[in-house]
Amino acid sequence: MSLDDISPSAIQRIASYSPYLDALVGLASEMGLRERSNLVLLEKSLHSEWGLGQHCILGWTPHDEGILVLVVPHYAVAEYAAGGGGQRGGWQLSEQFIKSLLSQKRLLSEAQLRKVARLLAIEPRYLPLRQPVGRNTTELQIIEQMVKRYSISFVPSRAVALFDIVGFSLLTPFEQMTQLNSLSYSLNSAQSKLMDRNIGVSFGRSTTGDGFYIWNREEKSDSNANLYHFMHLVLADNAIARQRATANSVPRLRAAFHVGSCYEFHQAEGLNPTVHDYIVGDVTIELARMIEKALPGQIFVGDFHIDESQRANSHHELDAIGFVDHAQGNLSQLEGLELSGERISSIKCYLTGERSSDGFSVRRLIIADKHGLSRSVYNAKVNIYRERAEPILLGIEDRKLRQLISNFASFELVSPSESPASFETN
Asked: Residue 353 and residue 360: Cα distance in Å, rounded?
């Protein structure tokens, strides 16, 4: 098969997402023209089933000369994911069943796919191809990514960082543009520095209008910690830029870090789904509520728990305090990086508190949002020491924070015995 086998109108539509196909096929230089043209035909079929965003594809499997797919309306997925349940084919579907389905790979065995089809009371749809899907691992991975572009994924535990520009709505349109560009540069610069150290990063980015959500698509054991350090480097680059700026072109930031569940999806852009994914869920809602109460220059860390057994060969959980302690333990990999031409000699990241008789305590803050809901957060500090320059001190000191207590509903101290490590205050 070649592109000559496809109608001119189809070619015109496919041309709009050819960069996306080029990016995928670029992963497999060994794929020939026949395999590539097969993917073009498959993309055309998937796009048709997607129906301009009306449907999503829950799963697929190779079958005969093509593939079988499970296609359902978006509203049906939303109903079950929201806990509405429902009756399908004599079975009572649960929210957990839908979340489990959305949290695994889209590639299913044919037996699995037909079982899910029976439970959802839908018929699998057959998409013919010019040649059958082979057992080539790379080809299967590419098709998996293609199908996910027309699907929804549920991630039970995702670390996300939020950067928010202080006073953004009071800026002129030109200042808003320049400050967003400045923040984008800091994000790109921090990612470049981590990649230079071969630190596993595959960051997703979604704008909030006056800032960005950032998450790490990597599923390795240190992916969450790498994102936490990425946040430090972004804030450090921003702090240096603010020191040098003469105009109001560099933003004043506040930041928050949290771990929670979310849905990943591709929004419609024109007549096609976007190449890059977006996230929404408990973790983004919590971050949005946290950042509302954060002060200029402040760094919040949410009160979360991580099951490390999902990411590594371990069977223990980390709370937020243990996570920050773990993150401090692998900061040595960032030593020697250059910030504004000066090498980093050491970095300290910690949650603030106050000195007690048997060490340092960590202060838990209880904040109330505009809806009257309360949540626990921690105040974080990061000190970056450079060889021949002044240290970069990020976040707000505990003693200064206590002077601004009116911004919080209450304070609560976590005793050192509850914490896996001691933390210092300035």
From this structure: 7
Q: Are 157 and 312 in contact (CB under 8 A)?
A: no
| Inter-residue contact 265 to 50 (CB < 8 Å) | no
Q: What phi and psi values does residue 127 have, to the nearest 5 degrees? A: -110, 105
- 3-state SS class at 419: coil
> What DSSP line would sit under 34-73, residue for residue?
HHHHHHHHHHHHHHHHHGGGTEEEEEEEEETTEEEEEEEE
Q: Considering only 61-65, 107-111, 274-278, which range has the smallest mean pLDDT?
A: 274-278
Other beta carbons within 10 Å of 240: 18
Nearest CA-CA partner of 362 in 422, 300, 298, 290:
422
**384/342 Cα distance (integer angstroms):** 11
Model pLDDT for residues 322-348, shown as the tens digit of each residue: 999 988 887 878 878 888 778 888 889
User: 3-state class of 307 per DSSP?
Assistant: strand
Lowest mean pLDDT among 57-61, 252-256, 357-361: 357-361
Would you say 251 and 165 are in contact if contact means Cβ atoms under 8 Å apart?
yes
Let me know: does 14 contact 2? Beta carbons within 8 Å.
no
Angle between helices 18-25 and 137-148 (to 10 degrees): 150
Q: Both tokens of residue 339? A: 């910030």
